[in-house]
Design goal:
Elements: E1 2-7, E2 17-22, E3 25-30, E4 46-52, E5 57-65, H1 69-80, H2 82-86, H3 97-115, E6 124-125, E7 127-133, E8 138-144, E9 148-153, E10 158-160, H4 179-185, E11 187-192, E12 196-202, H5 216-227, H6 236-255, E13 261-267
Antiparallel strand pairs: 1-4, 2-3, 3-13, 4-5, 5-6, 5-7, 7-8, 8-11, 9-10, 9-12, 12-13
Length: about 270
């Protein structure tokens, strides 16, 4: 398995974008294009992960609150436990995804709670992850909180698969929630890969009202379209990830109010 991890605490230069690509996937992370104008604990509390194996790609983003720790713990759990298993052939199928994803959310939540004291004075986080399995023709995904999972179609249509109003009120680490509650407060589902051009994950540094871009779906589409001409083709995920965060940072500068931003791209 090939693995890449971007941790917010290691990237604290205003306006800079860190990016890593492996195979058909890339992740990118930024402190933001302008200083945060809201109360926060650490300069950069976001994180991003990618893992590639014989079966496909697992990508994830996390937006920490009250410190960077919860975002890191959540992604370290994914990298250490399900990622090596899920990216091997025959280990997860669309029909077993709901159970497996809910169990991973519960275990990641437990790991965060063991590390900190929860929402009241402790770090908590959003978590969005997507598993792309080409042989099965399936996109398996899950999200808790207000991070996003976009499916970009070949015709340019962009759909946020993780849109879930109730999920915006709940974060991993907030309480001793079990798998059933986490599944109910978040989004766990399966989508077809047929007709898809890319899968894009992003934290709310891209979308936050009065901070991020005015039209997130248009920004995602523009980043993918802009990367489509990159040569060699292997550069396209990296160019798309960087391009999306460049758009987020530009919005921060225009509004003179920033936020951390993380994204992941799987090019199909």
């Amino acid at each position: 398995m090939r693995l890449a991890f971007l941790r917010g605490r290691e990237h604290v230069e205003l306006g800079a974008i860190a990016a890593v690509a492996e195979g058909n996937a890339a992740i990118a992370l930024s402190l933001g294009g302008a200083k945060k104008q809201y109360a926060h604990v650490d300069p950069n509390e976001d994180a991003a992960l990618l893992a590639l194996g014989p079966a496909g790609a697992l990508v994830a983003v996390a937006d920490g609150h009250h410190g960077f720790e919860a975002a890191e713990v959540a992604l370290e759990y994914l990298a250490t436990h399900p990622a090596p298993h899920w990216t091997e052939p025959g280990t997860v199928r669309p029909e077993t995804w709901a159970r497996q994803a809910a169990a991973v959310l519960e275990d990641a939540n437990r790991a965060i709670r063991a590390e900190r004291d929860g929402f009241e004075g402790g770090s908590c986080t959003t978590l969005a992850f997507a598993l792309v399995l080409p042989a099965a023709g399936a996109l398996l995904y899950a999200s808790v909180g207000d991070s996003h999972i976009y499916r970009v179609a070949e015709d340019g249509a962009v759909r946020d698969l993780a849109a879930h109003p109730a999920a915006k009120k709940f974060f991993l680490g907030q309480s001793e929630a079990g798998a059933a509650l986490l599944a109910a407060r978040g989004t766990i589902d399966v989508a077809p890969l047929a007709g898809a051009r890319a899968v894009v994950l992003a934290t709310d540094g891209l979308t936050e009202r009065d901070i991020g871009v005015d039209d997130p779906e248009a920004a995602v589409r523009e980043a993918i379209d802009g990367a489509a001409a990159a040569e060699p083709p292997g550069r396209r995920p990296l160019e798309a990830a960087r391009g999306l965060l460049e758009r987020a940072c530009a919005a921060h500068r225009r509004g003179r109010s920033g936020d951390n931003a993380a994204c992941a791209v799987v090019w199909l």
